[in-house]
């Protein structure tokens, strides 16, 4: 990224869009409501046109006509075929990634395996920014194993970032596992993964990254950065469809040493032998469990192909520029209106969304998702005061960002949000 | 079932079809190849026409246009909405069933919960007929807990049935859990569930049934029969689509006592509070884990609606009659050709498929799935010598059965199967 001067006009936004070398990729997605500014691709990515076609084929041709024979025609390989494509996006080898289960189930499998691989250590290091489901999974494992494991959560002093020194200090000879979300779901704070991996390796601990808010948006070089394990979801920047199955990554030379605890038949060495005794597969396949949900899986492939074609480095370059532009407009237009920036200012420490904090964030969000006056803007609200604006460079335009900030400014200066109820007790 | 006389002619099969009060339901499914006799609905059920429509709507209208708002429009309730419909098919209350994860993951969750609810007992009772994935899951749990649990498998003396006396003898004061597949995947042997539940209850053990080969085909009255827990898949007789998510059942008054070990956010009491500490939900929702795969879930609903409309008692009455008819034709036409019947003769001890055993079963199966000469018949081969013929009464016709038996007879009497290779070493 070269530092660049932005300008505050609508014309300038249009100019940026005209210069955007990725602009053609927007047409790969179904986008048919010009009045909708969708800034929630970090929660649910848009529908790739080819995903709809591919799914129709899977339903009518494969399920409808091929029936059970679909398993031999390609369904059985979906977990590894999709995994190989994700591997290319995260800097891993094709045989190190699988699509299976949900992010939480995958985290359970790998975290249990990691703790069993470090039987004399009792500490799991994570942070207060981690997605709660990840922390819940660790709490459940600690309760299940009942061996005195403990979860240490690194705090944040400013609610935006985690101090590297605090991470370094937390990782010690007692640490079995360091598990962090690479890009934090609220603030978009991004870790220096290579650095954390190095500290963990030095201390003899394993690392397990949640890439849900990273994959498809920021550069990832899992092999080069020495990551041991990772999980992530496919329905955000990968555009894989609502609740689409998750992925997991295990470094090749660790696979044989890790025993995941859910011994489903498709993780067995030879599932169709129907042997009465489980023998784990000798590769990434040992991390499979049950029969994959084919329809939700076939929908994933088109989004991966678009990202591979666009190239993750170009996607990230645009993301960094767009979030910088958003923050520039924020400084110009919103900073004096009771907002504070809830995300790091440096793109090197940031993912692909920007969090704006405001005491009336809940009501402002309600006003944004109404269509009139002005365009409808769909962000995410995250308790207690975050308006999360997601940048999905494959389809988010600079004009989208410009119009969204305009609309937020109008809502606040004209106090339009006061027409909406305050955050209800217990409804977050 | 009244005993009835069958006749061996094609005309008689046609007559049975004409008298079939469920025949109209066949048209609810996509069936467009008159030369294909599909007897594998017990592996993958056919595509309901409405499932295709519903899925297209979910893709284009919901994902494509509503985007993230789809979660508020109904996606979040899919696990319980589908669960309530399955509850009506299995004789449970609507708040006792959920659709989530895979059968193996659900079995893991509930079996761990059961063992922890019986902390002073060390025995899991199952049988050699259980689907291997179920046994693998138990083996994995035993390995994980490392508390000296053991798995006792009731044998079968004839490869077709399990002796009730053997089950009774296996369930004792040491037994924490009795977990069986209600209808065995190879022989279709069916347990007297109420009887087994009574024995378990008497001994203080919990029961966990795998209904994968029962649900949608045979009568189930989980509440009335005193079942504690159950799991099952939705892609066989429920016609939910390839690899569609599984379901789980937990008796209402047990729910609060069972702690499942995979603490994902959607099993938490208030997931959108994003609290850093897990508190389990106070109902069946505590057995949820991660975000549901929406597309694979919406495909399930149409099949459930067809079954509810047809009525499970009528479906079962037709299934019993069709399997009886199949066995009648087997006796007439195949019994002298090296075949033996691999399923119980009494419908009271049988599910909705019939297993034919033959030393050349693998080669015969290969010949059956070829289209010429004669119709293409799709069964399942199950190692070492089972040809599994599945009856799905919503769309299987008597003429299908008649033609299939004819074709098998031709393949064996004319030795057409000899054109196919013997079962390869290790390819089963």
N-to-C SSE series of chain A?
A: HEHHHEHEHEHEHEEEHHHHEEHEEEH
What is the fold-level CATH name, i.e. the topology of the largest domain in chain A? Answer: Aspartate Aminotransferase, domain 2
Tell me which protein chains meet in the greatest interface and how many residues each side has: A-B, 87 and 87 residues
Gap between N and C termini of chain A, in Å? 37 Å
The class by helix and strand makeup of chain A works out as: alpha/beta
Gyration radius of chain A, rounded: 22 Å
Strand content of chain A: 5-15%
Mean pLDDT of chain A: 96
Total number of helices of chain A:
14
Total strands of chain A: the figure is: 13
In the CATH hierarchy, what is the superfamily of the largest domain in chain A? Type I PLP-dependent aspartate aminotransferase-like (Major domain)
**Based on the structure given, which CATH architecture of the largest domain in chain A is correct?**
3-Layer(aba) Sandwich
Main sheet: strands, sense, barrel of chain A: 7 strands, mixed
* Basic shape of chain A: globular
Q: How do the strands of the widest beta sheet of chain A line up side by side? A: 2-8-7-6-5-3-4
Chain oligomer state = homodimer
Highest CATH level, the class of the largest domain in chain A: Alpha Beta
Could you list the spans of chain A in which at least 5 consecutive residues all have pLDDT below 50?
Answer: none
